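job 3f2a | input accepted
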Amino acid sequence: MKKILAINPGATSTKYAVFEGEKILLKTTIEHQGSDLQNFERVFDQYQYRLNIITEGLAEAGISLQSLDGVVGRGGLLKPLMG
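job 3f2a | predicted structure (83 res):
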């Protein structure tokens, strides 16, 4: 089975889950305090902040980035990609 990380960065939260097939291995919602996000001028500037939260959460759950077969995300900051 393939192991997939799904990320949903919202306006006030970051949700992420790891799936293996249809089985949920990890499901997390981080509610951000307004002061946490006010430090960033633009949404894209939050990238490293949110990446750190996700990678720390994965490590705490014993899931390595190398064990993932794919990563999907929701959001509008990417230009259309050829696939």
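job 3f2a | Residues 47-60 form the longest helix (14 residues).
job 3f2a | closed
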